[in-house]
Amino acid sequence: MAKELGVSPDAVQFRFRDDEMVDHGMVTVDSFVEQSNASAVRIEPGDDARELLPFLDRLALVEVNFPVFGDGRGYSAARILREAGYTGELRAVGEVLVDQIAYMRRCGFDAFAPDSKLNEADVEAAFARFPEVYQKTVDGAAPIWKLRHG
Amino acid sequence: MYKYDQYDQAMVDARVEEFRDQTRRRLDGSLAEEHFRPLRLMNGLYLQLHAYMLRVAVPYGTLNSDQMHALADIAEKYDRGYGHFTTRQNIQYNWIKLEDAPDILADLAKVEMHAIQTSGNCIRNISSDHFAGAAADELVDPRPYAEILRQWSSFHPEFSYLPRKFKICVIASDTDRAAMRLHDIGIQIVKNDAGELGAAFYVGGGMGRTPIIAPCINEFVPLDQLVTYSEACLRVYNRYGRRDNKYKARIKILVHELGKEEYTRQVEEEFAHMLEQGVEPPLAELERIKTYFQDPDFKTGLTDRADRSDPDFALWIDRNCHKHKAPGYVSATISLKPVGGIPGDASVEQMHLMANLAKEYSFDECRVTHAQNIVLPHVEIGRLHELWTKLEEAGLGTPNLDRIDDIIACPGLDYCSLANARSIPVAQKISERFAANGKADELGQLKLKISGCINACGHHHAGHIGILGVDRKGVENYQLLLGGSEAEDTSLGKITGPGFSEDGIVDAVEKAADVYLAHREDGERFLDTYRRIGMDPFKEALYG
Ligand code: SF4
């Protein structure tokens, strides 16, 4: 049998949701769009997240792979899904590192399954580091211009 | 000029602490160099041939005297007594220790400065016209727009791991003094027929190994959609810019490969979507920023005549001063190109002096130009002689703006680990040659630019005369280019033919200059003559 796609729920080190973790088979974007009634899909850097938009209400888990941390396409994929109203779990997997994790969160990721476990204190510090933000994204944080002008 | 409020200050302070923590983890070994590298780059710290280099951002090239003093102090405390002003209107220090870098950033934060995103595959420091807020020919001061984009692009969570670096430039006059169309995004603030201000977007320009002049993709983006439109341009790039080949990863290649129409279509589609996301700061924010860029209290009734009885002074006025919008004032350029000097270098003493002069003569403001000089933007004509005398005493009075010895040169093989050849000694030899042969005066405006490798940090494509260092079988070799321009008549230089040795290139530049002197017609600059007569007469002189 082919190796199962996606990381195991056990690999999720940080999760900022209260609902049950989804544990169904995960499919690629291509096979998801073609057929399936799957509720979990995995996005690779070259995939177009917008192909998923017609099916968002069926999805409970989207895993976005960062094979190398320097490939930033996954940030756009995440934000596009959130902008379109996706509310399910958005999980960053792969080379997820302390120094990128706060940006990932700002782009809508709410679960993280790093290839190698991160130091929890470092991650906590990373999330707490910047008191405010300059941009409006999808994390609900009020940007500085909003704080200035109400 | 812009002043931080508590929010801006808190962001910069947080960054210092973040980098302190990252450096600590790097030094204790818990952070691998591979993972530290992009982080230190995003803080402007490069590993060069001999030491770390720190690049400090000078947003849109504007500095006050406290900031210039602080830059001098850093040169004294952490470097070898010099700073190097760059073609991105920034400053670099070439001899930095990693363990000092967090302290330097802390010193910078005290004067509202930082090194955020001065390197790395992210949106870099935003450049602008060095005469902004002063030039007689500008529509408005472009810096408030640059500042709003600076804030938007700082720590942008989606656009910090782009395919490649990303440079934005904002100008607001038809005369282009900032190489606007050779940027990833060049913005010109314009007025439409209804008299409203807006932004023309030029996207996909750049130098490097594939120089491209940016096409205009939107002639008028309303000012309350500036950030939104930029966001759309960046998102299309982040998603579709090439990541398979570092040399094809700049946005210019994407725009070129998709074609301007298709790229524009995708941006417009994304833009329509982004407009619904509410990412744009309110116009009140722009108004708030603009209050920091009000005209200083220009005096009225000033003389517009200087006493020109000293010929050296008169020469300096003619060459180094630029027309100001307020009567009785000029913008004065301090040349960092003395004969035989290192282009763009300033010593600790010179930086302190320039800071003091900015305070005394120019409403506490100075500017870094992309040609690696310093501008005092608002100087009373009646006080110019006093100012010039002080500059002369400090070796800062060279009257050579835009002339053959006002050379732009990248650090080259003396510092840069990517270099093929040295740039600085070539610049020094050329300026010495033309000082000795006395031809510089006759040549008039002639912009000469030198890069030590194909990355083109020295803008060689855009020089009236450009020089590119290459490696020929392990020997430094120099190609000669003619006919480039980074002004509003943007053009890319063409290679004359086979390259030259280090001494050979100095001779070749002189020969090219001689061809111009022999062929020029009334009022023609080198560039005009080249455009009229073409490459052949130059080739003939060089290789015939
Ligand atoms: S052009 Fe090349 S040699 Fe010069 S600074 Fe840039 S990378 Fe270094």
What is shown here, in short?
The complex is a heterodimer of chains A (150) and B (544). Chain A is built from 5 helices and 6 strands; from the N terminus they run E-E-H-E-E-H-E-H-E-H-H.
Question: What keywords describe this structure?
Answer:
heterodimer, A: 150 residues, six-stranded mixed β-sheet, 5 helices, 6 strands, globular, B: 544 residues, alpha+beta, Sulfite Reductase Hemoprotein, domain 2, Sulfite Reductase Hemoprotein, domain 1, Alpha-Beta Plaits, 4 domains, five-stranded antiparallel β-sheet, 37% helix
Structural features, described:
The complex is a heterodimer of chains A (150) and B (544). Chain A is α/β, with parallel strands linked by helices and 150 residues long. Chain A has a single domain (2-149), classed as Rossmann fold (3-Layer(aba) Sandwich). Helix content of chain A is 27%, strand content 16%. Chain A has five helices and six strands; from the N terminus they run ββαββαβαβαα. In chain A, helix 1 (29-34) links the parallel strand 2 and strand 3 (40-43). The longest helix of chain A is centred in the middle third of the chain and has 11 residues, at 73-83. Chain A is globular, with a radius of gyration of 16 Å. The model of chain A has no long low-confidence stretch (mean pLDDT 93). Chain B folds into four domains: 6-109, Sulfite Reductase Hemoprotein, domain 2 (Alpha-Beta Complex); 134-291, 2-Layer Sandwich (Sulfite Reductase Hemoprotein, domain 1); 311-393, Alpha-Beta Plaits, CATH 3.30.70.3340; 408-543, Sulfite Reductase Hemoprotein, domain 1, CATH 3.30.413.10. Helices cover 37% and strands 17% of the residues of chain B. In chain B, the strands form four sheets. In chain B, strands 1-2-5-4-13 form a five-stranded antiparallel sheet. Chain B has a five-stranded antiparallel sheet with strand order 3-14-15-12-11. Chain B has a five-stranded mixed sheet with strand order 6-7-8-9-10. In chain B, strand 6 (127-128), helix 5 and strand 7 (168-171) form a beta-alpha-beta unit. In chain B, helix 1 runs antiparallel to helix 4, helix 5 crosses helix 9 (283-291) and helix 15 packs across helix 16. The N and C termini of chain B lie far apart (54 Å). Bound molecules: iron/sulfur cluster (SF4). Iron/sulfur cluster binds next to loops of chain B.
